[in-house]
Amino acid sequence: MLAYTYVEQGKFELREKPRPRLKDARDAIVRVTLGSICTSDLHIKHGSVPRAVPGITVGHEMVGIVEETGDAVRNVKPGDRVAVNVETFCGECFFCRHGYVNNCTDPDGGWALGCRIDGGQAEYVRVPHADQGLTRIPDGVSDEQALFVGDILATGFWAARISEITPEDTVLIIGAGPTGICSLLCTMLKHPRRIIVCEKSPERIRFVREHYLDVLVTTPEECLAFVHAHSDHGGADVVMEVAGARDTFQLAWQCARPNAVVTVVAMYDEPQILPLPDMYGKNLTFKTGGVDGCDCAEILRLIEAGKIDTTPLITHRFPLSRIEEAYRLFENREDGVIKVAIG
Ligand SMILES: [Zn+2]
Ligand SMILES: [Zn+2]
To answer: Locate the Alcohol dehydrogenase-like C-terminal domain: which residues (predicted)?
Structure first.
């Protein structure tokens, strides 16, 4: 089968590989019907994910059809359409039992697919702990509607869940990339008083303005003054930092009102400075990244009910055989691309 492979730093290649086989009774083999490219794939390519193993098939955003299951798999069976979770988790350890699945202590626990073990930018993928890692897609939900459930939408859902949003709040979301938009969609489900999105790309600003009419939009340069002018207590009640750019962490805490929650969803390429003397007395609560992706069934129900729709994010479509082209487009942010669908 064809599998897009991490060869070495800076180099991915479409290679012919044998089809994956069951290794454990809890595994399933999934035929990938649709996949996508995530910014984290680019982080692997650029060498900023040291635990990524050269030779592995990349890709961790996908949906497919169960082809085969191990004897211990109970929740899915061959023929089921499923969303694949970016995270592998056992469902039984201390962290899993508390819903902190990102820190599952299983050897394969956490982000393994397309990083430490073969992922899904391929025709087939082996999913360990399939009872946890696969969620059946309801009949009324298409592959495109379900494509982001296991990764960026799970991240947005988790970010909104842990941010303690109330109907009184002004929520600032920094970054309107794909994960920023997913965080926005899930924040909208909480019905806060105001949502402000901060973004620098004119194309992305246009996208937000076109699709989400009630959302206020500002730029990084104007953000601090804008948030002061459009909030009730001298800053945002909740800030989600989803940009991960050079100065966006500073912007995040500066835009927060005293006693706010600042949720850092972004993955940075460099260490960030936490200037405690400058923020002394602001009494902020920081929550940091690493999605606990255990809400996929609920997210799929919300999609089925028409409450979340990420299909406008899919701006381009490519077959697996042309994945090189898709990467070039996504990496260079050409042609107004937000997300590509591969399949
Ligand atoms: Zn991802
Ligand atoms: Zn676990």
So the answer is: 191-287
- Going from the Cα of 155 to the center of ligand 1, the distance in angstroms, rounded, reads 9
pTM of the model: 0.96
Compute, in angstroms, the gap from residue 284 CA to the centroid of ligand 1. Answer: 28
Helix (H, G, I), strand (E, B) or coil at 188: helix
Ligand nearest to the CA of 40: 1
CA of 151 to the centre of ligand 1 (A): 5
CA distance 13 to 3: 8
* Ligand 2 mean position, distance from CA 324 (Å): 35
In this structure, the answer to whether residues 13 and 110 fall within a common structural domain is yes
Ligand nearest to the backbone CA of 109: 2
- Picking from 250, 268, 288, the residue at the C-terminal end of a domain is 288
pLDDT at 267: 87
Cα–ligand 1 centroid distance for 121 (angstroms): 12
What digits encode the pLDDT tens for the residues 29-76? Answer: 999 999 999 999 999 999 889 999 999 999 999 999 999 999 999 999
User: Looking at residue 321, what is its pLDDT?
Assistant: 97
Cα of 102 to ligand 2 centre, how many Å? 8
CA of 267 to the centre of ligand 1 (A): 10
Total domains in the chain come to 2
The range of the structural domain enclosing residue 313 comes to 2-151+292-342
**Average pLDDT over every residue of 202-210:** 96
> By CB neighbour count within 10 A (0-12 exposed, 13-18 middle, 19+ buried), where does 273 fall?
exposed
Residue 238 buriedness (CB in 10 A; 0-12 / 13-18 / 19+): buried
- Distance from Cα 116 to the centre of ligand 1, integer Å: 14
Q: What is the CATH number of the domain that holds 103?
A: 3.90.180.10
Number of H helices, E strands in the chain: 12, 17
- Measured in Å, residue 286 CA sits from the centre of ligand 1 at 22
Residues 134 and 208 in one domain: no
**Residue 270: which pLDDT band, with cuts at 50, 70 and 90?**
confident
